[in-house]
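BUG: 3D viewer hangs when loading the predicted structure for this chain

Environment: internal workstation, default settings.
Expected: structure renders.
Actual: progress bar stalls at 90%.

Input used:
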Amino acid sequence: AAAVAAATAAGTPAVLIGTAVPKIAPPTAKAAAATAVTLSSTSPSSTPATAASQATPLTPKPAPAKPTAPEAPKPKEKASLPPPVESPPAGKGKGKAPSSKGIGKGTGKGGAASPPTAGKDGAQSPPAEKGAATGGKGSKAGPPPKGKAPPGKAAGLPGKGGGTPAKAALPKGAPIGRRFEWRLLPSDKVDGTVFANLTQEVSVDVTCLRALFEKPKEAPAQPKAKGRAQVKTEVEFLARGRAQNIMIALKRQPLTERVVKALERLDFDEAELSPECIEILTGAVPTAEEAKLLAGFHGDISSLREAERQIMPLARLERPAAGQRLRLMLFNRMMQELCGDVRAGLSAMRTALDDARNSPAFRAVLAHTVRLGSVINFGTAKVDADDGHIAAVSGFGLDALSRLALFRAPGNARITLLHVLVAQVLVADTDLPRRLVEEMGNVHKAAKRPISQLAEEIGAFAREADHATACSSCRVANPMDVVATSLSSLSERAAAEALALREQLKETRESAKAALSFFALPAKEKEIDAKALELCQLLSEFLSVFEKTQREITRNPNLAAVCHSGAHQASLKAAGPRTGNSPKTAGEVSEGGA
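Structure tokens produced before the viewer hung:
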């Protein structure tokens, strides 16, 4: 209806969607104004917003109308309107502009109603309905009311008369390999940023980029050969990981023909089977289940996988099996070394304990210690008896020996009670420290090899001897059987050695029990091993500290003179002749250091 009114005012025919509009003779100015007033008052599409827009219209500059010939005035009569036409719903209507000048072409969705335009003789045409397209050469659409989108913007397809400008097109081209993900800035966001003046020319080595990031082209598929290809199938009994571990072990130590023959004959004298080689081959020995599977294979051995083919000779060994044979050969190689090491440890323990019990020098040092402790704790009045030699203290626990070096003089913290003991021993006998070190030197070795550790080693040796005996018993004795002869000889020697080691262990424990009782350290049967170790460690520590203190006093006679009045001459005698040395006071010793 609005389009008809506008066309009537302009004197041009109008065409609506799906309806033919008859030509209307161009009315006079008064008739056009009356028609416009009548339409504006009777049109159902007149809304408060439209009325407001008519009250204050934005009148763009109208296009010049064609001059028409004046006509004789006609009596006023009610303009006849074409039958009403259903307009499309808002937001989806399409308008078709007439072809004459002043009406442009364009389509739009959701467009708002345009303001009325001034017609001939100053009359205003009613606003176009929603969905009608305006624009083109002859007219220019006014701004839309608030809250409504301009024509053509919602559709995204602007016409000639309006719409949003198109975004700048991105460069076209295939990426080199994978596309690099980044966020591109629009051109209107670049102004004022660091990217605004990046005009420097940068050269890019495209060849290198392609070589680094371009996806390699897939090789063309090879044409399948006609006929079925013959695939070689291998018989497998072992898991893939197990087979791989076996091959690694056999690569380090190949299973040569000499090694296989030595295992078959149980030749203990084969030089190629060293302890290191035996340990490596132990990892390639098949288990009982694996050996059963391999031994039950009666097909072509070349059809087996390499791992199964390599260990097939080991799987066929029995009574004893390959693993037991390697264990026996390793025990035979290490038997003498194991026996010698355990015997040395037992001997060192017995010797150290016996030396501590029978050492005259150690007994003299203990006597000096009792004397010093009595004087320190009870004073001189209670120490001496009638004869002047018997001390008031009868004895003490040997753990006090380790605390002598911690008992420091209040006036000089560098001097301890152990310094005084060594100085007193030097005055009594200058050769006593040397004899003490010689007589008790074995306690250092005994402290490193406790009886409990030696007992575990003897137990392990006895188990290997029992294993050899069991392997020998499962084979019938036959002079012609080389394996049975080797097993019998090994089991006899191992049993004898195990019996001898057990006897020596028993003797060592008896000696330890006697030493603990001698030094007033009682212990139960289960505590003998631990208590003997504590005694050896205590004596070893005391001997080391005593020897270190003796060297300090010997090198510094002035320190000896401070610890004992007669120790100066004794230290000079022990250290050899010196010149220019004179006794120092306790304060001078404190300033110069011990």
